[in-house]
Write a structure and sequence with these properties.
By secondary structure, the chain is mostly beta strands. It has no helices and eight strands.
Length: 107
């Protein structure tokens, strides 16, 4: 039997999750989706080997909630500290548990 990690409790708006607007690149149609936004900072090095800090914005959501026709290069509008931020969906990593990790790029 398949383990289903896309538990509704994890994506509960009262706990970790928030809503975002998924806008299809092909039609500009908006879809409200629910997921968990993270934007953790981590250290790296630039081309001169100097330390830099960067972040990798990500949005974790139920695969079944991705809008029909939703794909990379669509945009996701996420409220961050009550200000809408626009992100480009760069990579969609679907797993076998009905959870997808979206790798985002701030616009």
């Amino acid at each position: 039997t398949m383990l289903n990690l896309a538990n509704d409790a994890f994506f509960n708006l009262n706990d970790f999750a928030s809503t975002a607007t998924w806008r299809l690149a092909s039609s500009s149609d908006p879809y409200v989706v629910t997921g968990v936004f993270t934007n953790d900072f981590f250290s790296g090095f630039d081309e001169l080997n100097a330390p830099v800090s960067t972040s990798q914005p990500q949005f974790t959501m139920k695969t079944s909630d991705i809008p029909t026709g939703g794909k990379e290069e669509d945009t996701l509008i996420i409220p961050v500290n009550n200000i809408d931020q626009t992100y480009l969906v760069k990579i969609i990593e679907r797993d076998a548990t009905n959870v997808s990790l979206l790798i985002l790029q701030r616009q």
